[in-house]
Task: inverse folding
């Protein structure tokens, strides 16, 4: 009973925090509307980042656009993120970027917190680490650390189900893919995350959406 109640309290806190951080993409700082031209080298578009493919030590994070509320994303994905939010809003949805770019330190602190949570629930150290790693990417292996993805959540009158369903149907048109599909967890090694959208560009997003492949499978097919 106690832990159920604690969960409800935590959930309420998380929701309140999410609202406080709420990013109205339409309310970006003025300087954010000046967009950089698309770069000639687009290697980053299809860069694979996962447990087996950590971010290269010499990877330089692209210029960030800070969204109102404190979240940031790589400037190169911003125009399409904005267009996607505009389209969702014109379909009557209310949504926010709950998490964009994260520093390595932030990713580490999320991991530490998750492990501590499981330990507090009575799991042993090894178990707690294993459980935490199913939820939180190891520092150095999260797409959030390069700022080319966004966790997108519902707010206001919209429900998560409505927002996730809209994204699943439409995000590809703006170059975003559902990065961790429900039926690909054995390949991605990550739980189903209906909120996490990765930018890969319009062409790849459409191919991935139509094929039903996850990014790992799509890239393996391309190089085969
Ligand atoms: Zn995410």
Result:
């Amino acid at each position: 009973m106690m832990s159920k109640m604690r969960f409800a309290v935590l959930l309420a806190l998380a929701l309140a925090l999410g609202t406080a951080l709420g990013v109205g993409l339409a309310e970006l700082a003025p300087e954010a509307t000046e967009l950089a031209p698309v770069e000639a080298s687009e290697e980053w578009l299809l860069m694979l980042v996962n447990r087996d493919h950590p971010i290269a030590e010499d990877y330089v994070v692209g210029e960030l656009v800070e969204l109102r509320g404190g979240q940031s994303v790589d400037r190169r994905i911003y125009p399409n993120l904005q267009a996607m939010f505009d389209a969702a809003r014109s379909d009557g949805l209310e949504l926010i970027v709950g998490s964009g770019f994260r520093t390595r330190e932030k990713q580490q602190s999320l991991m530490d917190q998750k492990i501590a949570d499981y330990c507090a629930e009575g799991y042993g150290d090894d178990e707690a680490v294993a459980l935490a790693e199913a939820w939180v990417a190891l520092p150095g292996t999260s797409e959030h650390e390069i700022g080319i993805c966004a966790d997108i959540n519902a707010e206001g009158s919209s429900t998560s189900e409505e927002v996730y369903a809209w994204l699943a149907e439409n995000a590809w048109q703006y170059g975003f893919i559902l990065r961790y599909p429900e039926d690909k967890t054995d390949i991605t090694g990550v739980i189903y995350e209906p909120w996490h959208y990765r930018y890969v560009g319009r062409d790849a997003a459409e191919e991935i959406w139509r094929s039903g492949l996850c990014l790992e499978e799509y890239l393996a097919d391309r190089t085969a």
About this structure: The radius of gyration is 18 Å. The mean pLDDT is 86. Residues 99, 144, 149, 151, 196 surround zinc ion (CB under 6 Å). The CA atoms of residues 179 and 214 lie 7 Å apart.
